[in-house]
Amino acid sequence: MTASHPARTAGPTSKLRTPVQKAALAVGALFLVVGLLGFVPGITTHYEQLTFAGHHSDAALLGIFNVSVSHNLVHLLFGVAGIVLARTFTSARSYLIGGGVVYLVLFLYGLVIDHDSSANCVPVNDADNWLHLGLAVAMIALGAAWAAPAMTAANPWAPVTGHRAERPAARPSDC
């Protein structure tokens, strides 16, 4: 007798999450934490010099990464976006790959601007540039690697089209 198994989904109503959804959720949570820590004196050095925006902010998260109020708010929004977009496979993949592209652009922006000029409105420093490059590579890799079509043939948990994956029917037992 052949047993039939219901299809397993990784959509918004399922408690099962694909690796790409878990990665988007983790990245979003990380950005939320970073955004909040940017407003904590002590964790953010020179907190009294935190400005709303621009290169004049001498506040530095962990004493390394330049931050401003707007920079922290962007981290918070990016975190919320990651958590919300982790609900579906397709949106989680888009968040990771699209966010990685945004961070690649920020890395390039940080390379070409003078960090002491008014063009440095984010603000960024050398440590931020390297962090942005690392985030770009990691996010794009997470979004692309776990979204590979080859996974769907071998892994019944992986979505076929971003909606659901059919689990193969169980074969009769040889016993």
Describe this structure in words.
It is a single chain. The chain is mainly alpha-helical and 175 residues long. Helix content is 49%, strand content 6%. It contains 5 helices and 5 strands; from the N terminus they run E-H-E-E-E-H-H-H-H-E. The strands form 2 sheets. Strands 2-3-4 form a 3-stranded antiparallel sheet. It has a two-stranded antiparallel ribbon with strand order 1-5. Strand 3 and strand 4 form a beta hairpin. Helix 1 packs antiparallel against helix 2 (69-85), helix 1 (19-37) crosses helix 3 (89-112) and helix 3 (89-112) packs antiparallel against helix 4.
Short key terms for the protein model shown above:
49% helix; 175 residues; 5 strands; 3-stranded antiparallel β-sheet; disordered N terminus; two-stranded antiparallel ribbon; mainly alpha
